Amino acid sequence: MIKLVAFDLDDCLFDSTGLSKMARIKGIDVMIDLGLNIERKKAITILMEIVDEYGSNFSKHYNYFIRRLNQIDNEFNISFNMKYKFISAAVMAYHKEKIDSIRLYDDVKPTLMKLKKNKIKTSIITDGIPIKQWEKILRLNIDSLIELVVISDQIGVRKPNPWLFEFCLKKFAVKGEETLYIGDRIDKDIIPAKKNNIISVYIHRGGKYDSYKNESESSEYKIPDYEINNLDEIFTIIENLK
Asked: What three-state secondary structure class fits 1?
């Protein structure tokens, strides 16, 4: 019998990747509005190259964007004052868009409410900085529907380390076979869950990790126990496991 259902957060409960991309483009738009003389498509391409090279959590995407413009084309030659005006405006636009546009996937809240009604415990297991991850949870207004939030940087263990999932099991005093875990990545969600005997559910959200690519692990761990396209499908799984 399932006693606990746990979820990944980013790109599982909301479109984190899409939101970040949209917010970064807002930063480009505001710089162009302020007078940055560059074709929009070219600017977006350069910024996305920087994101790919330095990672999505890098804090100076716009700084390096301006730095790169000054190096690759003499026509820019952005002055010291304008440089920081552009960067500041872009950062403001980025954060505003992330605040204004963050939304749960449509299937999330009804699922969490139904789990609560059925007295099944709930948890989020996520990588990230605690303040940033909690900000997302509070803005998504789901904190009252989640009983435990396990954030990697709070306890010093990151996915795919299986101990992060074991920590959650111990907190609830449940076994892996009494737990469902839903995630959108094979490497960081499904594999560590299965190593704890947790029943793994792979949700297809259509994101960049919507595939089975992790050749370093055996197929025993790579293949999820279940695959779904909508969170409501977990109730059929729960019923079948009784």
From this structure: coil
